[in-house]
Amino acid sequence: HDMGVIAENADKVAVMYAGQIVEYSDVISLFEKPLHPYTQGLMASMPSLKDDREMLETIEGTVPSIYNMPKGCAFCNRCKFAKECCAEVQPEMKEMDSGRQVRCLRYDDQYKEAWHHE
Fold first, then answer.
1. d(CA 70, CA 19)
2. What is the DSSP letter of 104?
3. How far apart are CA 59 and CA 6, in angstroms?
4. Do 18 and 61 contact (CB within 8 A), yes or no?
C-alpha cells in the first residue's frame, strides 16, 4: 500500500481488492483521477504535502473472507456509492475510453441509471 513507492517506480498499476483487480491504469491517470471507490479510498488515506488535513480518511468496514465472499461486488459493504445492484451483481472489468480498466457497476452502461441523480 505504499503509493509513493508505486508512483516513483511503476508505469502501470493494478489495484487489487479481495483477490481481484479492481482498477488497472497508468500511474499518472490513477493518481490524478482514481476510478474505483477502493482506489479513491486508498488515495484519500495517503498523507499529502499539499493538504493541511489533520485526519486522514479511512475505509470503514473489513475485507470479506475468501470463504464467505458476497454474491455481488466484494467492495459493496464498504463502498460509499453502493446501490442495491452492487450486492447482487458481480462487476466485470470495464475498458474505459482512456484504455484504463475498472471493475465497478458505476461504469457499466447497463447500471449507470442507478447513479444518475448523484
1. 13
2. -
3. 20
4. no
Spatial contact of 59 and 43, defined as CB atoms under 8 Å apart = no
d(CA 74, CA 59): 14
Contact residues for 55 (Cβ-Cβ < 8 A; gap 6+): none
Contact 70, 87 (CB under 8 A): yes
Provide φ and ψ at 22, rounded to 5°: -110, -15
β-strand partners of 26 = 12
The cell 463502498 sits on which residue?
79
**pLDDT tens sequence across 39-69:** 999 888 877 666 666 677 888 888 898 898 9
Pairing label, strands 101-102, 94-95: antiparallel
